[in-house]
Amino acid sequence: MREKILAPSLLAADFSKLEKEISDVARAGAKYLHLDVMDGAFVPSISFGMPVIKSLRKNTDLVFDVHLMIENPLRYIEDFRRCGADIICVHAEADRHLDRTLNAIKQSGAKAALALNPATDIDSVRYALSLCDMVLLMSVNPGFGGQKYIGYVTEKIKRLADLREACGLDFDIEVDGGINLDNVSSVISAGANVIVAGSAVFGEQTYQNACKFMDVLNER
Ligand code: DX5
Ligand code: ZN
Fold first, then answer.
1. Count of domains for the chain
2. Which of 61, 115, 129, 153 could be a cystine partner for 139, CB 3.0 to 4.6 Å?
3. For residue 83, what is the domain's CATH number?
């Protein structure tokens, strides 16, 4: 069975105390830190980029799961790898040459992940799946934290898990957007094993919130 991993999304953290926020989720048992990079073009908002990631790298051994919501990500693969990205995730909708980009990520030494917006069909990336260490299914339209989980994505997770099995492939399935303690079990039951959560983890009680997620993940 695949390991269930919590990937807290730093976007929802208090940026005036990042070191504490990160040590809280690490102490609770999160293995990944999900880092949302937004360029104001692929998505409406702008978040943070290389200097922030590079600084954080000095403070933690968590796996840096870098979710690039940027156009033409190939331009920046090497830069993000140098800043400390362990997993680099690009969007199918932002890249015309996915085969080239996913290979470039692997060549950089990072793990390669491919993200799909909620409405993007899995079949459209069928031939890219063999290049992926992880596939990220967005369960909100990317660009902002704190949105509501889009229900039809649960079915999509099942379809992707079935396709992985049918094709004899071996990638993790990550789900991102609107995940909370009420819906995380159904996301895991559908076949996801890497769980991103932002606003449901970071807040007044970051450590306790992350512990509650870990309890659910460890039960399964
Ligand atoms: C949205 C980002 C998410 C976001 C998740 O575009 O990719 O990672 O931070 O936040 P919540 O868990 O609050 O939906
Ligand atoms: Zn994300």
1. 1
2. 153
3. 3.20.20.70
